[in-house]
Amino acid sequence: MLAAFLIPILSAQWDQLSTTGVPSGREEAGSYVLDGALCLFGGRGVRTVDCLDFASRTWSRSQATTADVHHATPLLHNGEIWVVSALTGSWPANERAIRKVLVYSPATDALREECDIPEAFARGAAGVAAYNGDFYIVNGAVGGHLKEYGAAAYSGFTRFDPSSCSWFDMGAAPKYARDHFGAAVSGTRLVIGGGRDTPKGEDEFDVFTHTVGPVEWFDFEGDGTWHEASPIPTRRAGLMAVLDGEGRIVFIGGETALNVDASDAVERYDVAADTWEALPPLNDGRHGGGAGLVASTLVVAAGVGKGGGAPLLTSSEALSEPPFTLGACLRAIPSATALLPSDAAFADASRPINLRKDITPSPLAVARPSDVAGAQAAVRCAAAANIQVCARAGGHSFENDSGCTDGVLIDVQELVAFSVNGAAVTFGSGHTLGQLYHKLATGHQLAVPGGSVSGVGASGLLLGCGRGMSTTIHGLFCDVMTGLEYIDEKGALRAADASTNADMFWMARGGGGNFPGIVTSFTVSAFPMPQSVHSRECVIPYTEAKLRAVLGAWSARLEQMAQPSRKLFTHVKMWGRPRQMILFAVCIDCTSAEVAWTDVQVDAILNAGPTTPAPSCSRVTRSWLQQLLIESGSAEGAIANTPSALLDRNQGWGKEASDAYKASQNGGHLGFTWSIPKGTVDAIVKWQYTETVAADYGVMLEFYPIGGPKVAEIGPKATAYKHRDAKWILHYKHQWRPGDAQAFTVMMAHHANLVRDLDTALPCAAFYNYLDNTLSCAADNDAWLAAHFSDVPRMKQIKTENDPSGLFRSRLPSSRALASPSPRPPPSPPPPPPPSPAPPPPPIGTAIPISTHARPTLPSVVLGMNYAPDPSDYTDDQLWPEIYYDSDYFNDDYQQLWGRANGGRGDLATMAAMGVNFVRLYDWNSAQSNIGGHKSFFDASLGLGIKVAVPISNYVINTCIRDAAWWCAGPLALDIIKSIVAEAYEHEASHDFRGAIGAWTIGNELDLWGALNSIGAIRTAIRTIVEEEDRLQWPQERRPAIMVPVSFAIRGWGALCPSLPGGFLCDAYTAVLAELGPTVTHRRYVHAVQSYNNGTVLEERFFANKEAVDPAYRWMNLETQFIAAGIAAAADIPTVVTEVGDFRLDPQAVKSQLDAILGSAPRAIGLAWFCFMDKPWKIGWGDWWEPTFGLHAIISSNFRLATTTSGLYLDDTNKPVSCGVNTCSGGELARFPVEQVVPKPVASVVATAYLSAGGGGGGGNRLPPPPPPPPLACLQSGVELWLSPPSEAKCCSGAAATWLGWDNAGQVNGFICSGAATTSSPPPPSPRPPPSQSPALTQPPSGAPVQASPPPPRPPPRPPPPRPPPPLQSPPPSSCLPTGIERWLSPPAEAPRCCDGNAQSVWLGWNNNDLVNGFCCDLPASAVTSAVSPPPSASAPQISASPPPVSASPPPPPPPRENSPADAPATPARPVRARAPCAAPTRSRLPLRSPF
């Protein structure tokens, strides 16, 4: 068994420890860890017990000593150290096993002999470990090292009970004799690794050579035998074994030859996954020393530096591992190519075949392993990052599920191993069908019953079961599968067949992308390759009569044509433009008689119905591979017409296909009778030929046989594939050019209309390989699964058992949620009218309470970094130092600084490793399409979980807008802003508006640059941003936050808060308020202040509540100043300290600043540290501190600082170029590739604070949403509204649950609890979520007693609104209530009157978890109790009479508003609050939302 390396941790390192004191040198010692110290025990000669206190880095020594006790493994028991196996005596002639158990008491510093060791169990250099209070001793040696002095191998397994000093033979023994090895218990397994069979050696040199490779393990809860596992990568003996904090075993150091440097290898073994990981090597190779895990850190000490007994070492080392990042983990895999969004090749690597814009995948990374070990490593990296993985072989999934949005795409295309053993064929999962068919044919003359398009990945087709030309003859593709190998969630390689992991084998045959693992190879049973394929193809001009006749005649003969003995494949294809049908039939390896029978059937079909216009037919006989080329598009130019083209994965309707229709929407309906229902034909006539799309070859419909005796001979639940009794499938495909936005809208709507009508004629049964994630006939995710698979409960159980963490992307629920795809809504109707103008701001001083300080586009805790990746060049002009203030992040040189491409420095990855989740920029030029714009920067940030603050620079605000410089004034300035917004929108839209854009920042410290004159410019910039967002229809709830960064170092520069440091903060707030209005301001705006004050000032003065501030310093307090300025509502706006720093970079001062800001939530929601790196080019500009203010120093061979104030000397071409204040001489371009950024000591202070606050590659930015609340047990008092009705319902009060029917144009249904009123008071209201969010919704369980009539059938669906309506506004108390239900954000002081004088306003109470309250004016005054509007804590009046009677024939309920996502758990549909059913809509209602 070969060792499987996981990942080398290249960026970790062993640090030499600087200690007070050193241990005594010793050879063949043991060690233990106790109370935060690593202690060395024994060794040759007389030795003290030496302990290193890791916290203080101090060595101490015992008074007690051991006398020549070596080759021992001390174990801790009841606070004492026990030794049950060791050698004593001198080498080589006098070494013998000890015969007494030794016990050392650290508390009394005393060593004693405890009890005898029977001769039968005495040995040394053994493996010793503890489990459940007992000690276990494995193998070892007796008589020392050399057999001439009596040395011999000890092969045995012993248990010692320290409580009774009893010894027991375990019976089972490992396969390999070994001593000088490592042993440890992980979980229930005792694992041994390394070592050698020392007594086998002939002399003192030869004893080193007989090393043992395989690892062995014994499961204490298992079968009582030893098992062999993957061998240790570096074979050696004398190594140390340590269990790390995650149950993995680290094997450290060792020796391989006499007087040769000891091994420095450090390798970590994952017991569950049976994989190895290379850790950084030791600084000093050593063996026979001490090692342990102390304070979660690996520490080693002492030992011997060469094989044998000298030199003795006294040094100590500790392994420092940096924070984990997904990108670094993937890039460290030796046998895989890792691509991140910042890489130039990423776009092509992640590009699917289907370029439909709404399913464009955006994975966080693409890993392309070249072997199975590389794939295992990629799975482990994703698991460590808590990110889902998907496998892709060909990329032809109709819904791009394998594209793995927000996950790790593992592209297996290089896993193409291939072997044949008779009819058994084993092939790697990376094969396309064309590659597989070509290899089967070449030299083997074999074939399999797969599909016929060469570029399709064989794996995806096979897992879905797959049909093809030979399905009726040989069955579905999955029917010939006999086994597979796959990678499980631990990264281990496993096998499955009918007897091994049988559930996984069952799942692989039809479970599709829900298979809980990454398949690396399949074994199938092949059949002899056909030698000839006789085909006949007829083009039939369309008339309705002819279509109906042809389909009737074809289906009438299909049962006979599907008999395996007929060796026939046939289909009917229908195009709307051109208006035609194509009848196709092939007879495979047929005799002349069989071909003649086929012709009779074809002729009969052609002659059905009208005979004019006449069809046009052709017939040809081809070889098997020639027919596959035709099927793969050779006639259309999609593949070269030569068999070797089948080996090219990009041909055959692949990425390089010539057809411009590369965007499509697909689906399929199955038929379960041989005849085609009339309703199905009616739908085809209507949507393909009557209301067809005006696009040639835009819509294709095609009938195929998919059943028959061969498919049906396998039992209905024998595989995960369900529809063994299906007869045919109707595949439909809408296709168009990807860039045609109008075609997208038209085609998607046409598809929805076609499918809706097919749903009424055919059962809800689908074929996985014609994937349609919407599947409108399925009401929820369970229904979607049931439409595809034979035994959904079994699939869920297999998923739970084999992938409990939900690592592998699936529509099956798992115990925890990782990143998973979002459901795709149906096509949107035309855009809504422009939003109404924002309401005017309230009078100054009016408080506007808000429910949360969160901003949806910002991390919940902002852990930021100010960043300008200078220096670099981006112009051909001569440069001067001022140019470095302007940082253009999309230039190629800059990509090498912030990115990893072309050996780049990787600043963004460095920040992510520090815990940064927010990067603030300073200058941002407008997009330049010729070099790709800023997309790569955005994508790189998104991949690392970092949000970006995009700036509208001071240059735009002051020079262009305020000062109206002729070269950029007026529309030119606004165009700059619009281009920035448009470019950001493009990125966000491609990532479902969950991209990297976190905020707009307007200017920087404008109070330093004539702030009061910039108010108008600020408002203009904000207005332009919002207008462009409106034009682009950027969803309101996902628009970036807005900041106007203000310096806290200036006093008296604000008109409203003249005494406040940074008084311009108040003016900035009112400017934003005037432009956005109060609602939007309190949803989007964030105070941005910049302070270099110490932590005490920040915590006790700036951010404290005004009452807690020393009166002498209240002029520095935000809340005090806002109240004094008459803008108290500004205190409810959260603050980000967009620049904070300490010019001394004093670690304690920095820590106090970080603690103060991060501890001031929710008023302060985070910070951005100033800054990432030094800026030495500012020296000539009068800055005395900023040039060296960074957390990182920079190292470059291409510049040095001048000794005068002239700035920099540049030597890009080894020729000095002196730059003055405004000029450069010499005419050389200034290129500054900064090779390194070196962290200063204070960088670790910032990283520690950020990582502790939840940072790290974005911290919590990509955490899954919380699980839904548990279902309601009953209906609350008042009206309950539901997106889909429960099957049963009861009222909490005991009253009858009355069905109120469908409301709101048939979109929402509801119940009301009337009759006996509950006496309980409604609970106080929960804070209402922001308008952009859906409330947490639940549905009553189905087990409640039935007290309501079941809902009626569904009416025709209505298209959903394209976006949520505006947030609700409570009407003023003086307004009357129109007829219907009014929803209120908070109850008014008194009950409003009804506009209809015949009705009274009735308080309906807090509804469904207290999220919404309301009044109803729909009931006659005589029928209700007069309602006094209660406060939330008061008892709610109850409806005292029944509501209006329900119609005897209510309209049927609608289908679900949206479809379930691919990974939706099997939970009941959740209710959605909307208007109640008592009247037609008259006011704004809550937005309708998907139940997920």
Descriptive overview:
- The chain has 1492 residues and is of the alpha+beta class.
- Helices cover 18% and strands 22% of the residues.
- It has an 8-stranded parallel barrel, surrounded by 6 helices. The chain has a 7-stranded antiparallel sheet with strand order 43-40-42-41-45-46-44.
- Strand 3 (37-41) and strand 4 form a beta hairpin.
What is the strand tally?
Answer: 66
What overall geometry do the principal axes of the alpha carbons give?
Answer: flat
Averaging pLDDT over every residue, what do you get? 78
Helix vs. strand class? alpha+beta
Helix content: 10-25%
Percent range for β-strand residues? 15-25%
* Strand order in space, largest sheet: 47-48-49-50-51-53-54-55
Number of helices: 26
Largest sheet: 8 strands, parallel, barrel
What is the terminal separation in angstroms?
46 Å
What is the topology?
Blueprint: E1 13-16, E2 30-34, E3 37-41, E4 43-53, E5 58-70, E6 75-77, E7 80-83, E8 87-88, E9 96-97, E10 100-105, E11 110-116, E12 127-131, E13 134-138, E14 141-142, E15 152-153, E16 157-161, E17 166-169, E18 182-186, E19 189-193, E20 215-219, E21 226-229, E22 240-243, E23 249-252, E24 266-270, E25 275-279, E26 290-294, E27 297-301, E28 316-320, H1 326-331, E29 336-339, H2 346-350, E30 365-369, H3 372-384, E31 389-392, E32 408-411, E33 418-421, E34 424-428, H4 433-441, E35 446-447, H5 458-464, H6 471-474, E36 481-487, E37 493-497, H7 502-508, E38 518-525, E39 527-528, E40 533-541, H8 544-561, E41 568-575, E42 580-588, H9 592-606, E43 616-622, H10 624-631, E44 663-671, H11 678-690, E45 699-705, H12 709-712, E46 728-736, H13 741-761, H14 781-786, H15 792-802, E47 862-866, H16 892-898, H17 907-913, E48 918-920, H18 935-943, E49 947-952, H19 954-962, H20 971-989, E50 997-1002, H21 1015-1032, E51 1041-1043, E52 1046-1047, H22 1064-1084, E53 1085-1091, H23 1095-1102, H24 1118-1124, E54 1135-1140, H25 1147-1158, E55 1164-1169, ...
Parallel strand pairs: 30-32, 31-32, 47-48, 47-55, 48-49, 49-50, 50-51, 51-53, 52-53, 53-54, 54-55
Antiparallel strand pairs: 1-28, 2-3, 3-4, 4-5, 5-8, 6-7, 7-10, 8-9, 10-11, 12-13, 13-16, 14-15, 16-17, 18-19, 19-20, 20-21, 22-23, 23-24, 24-25, 26-27, 27-28, 29-30, 33-34, 34-38, 35-39, 36-37, 36-38, 40-42, 40-43, 41-42, 41-45, 44-46, 45-46, 56-60, 57-58, 58-59, 61-63, 62-63, 64-66, 65-66
Helix pairs in contact: 8-9, 11-13, 19-20, 19-21, 20-21, 21-22, 23-25, 25-26
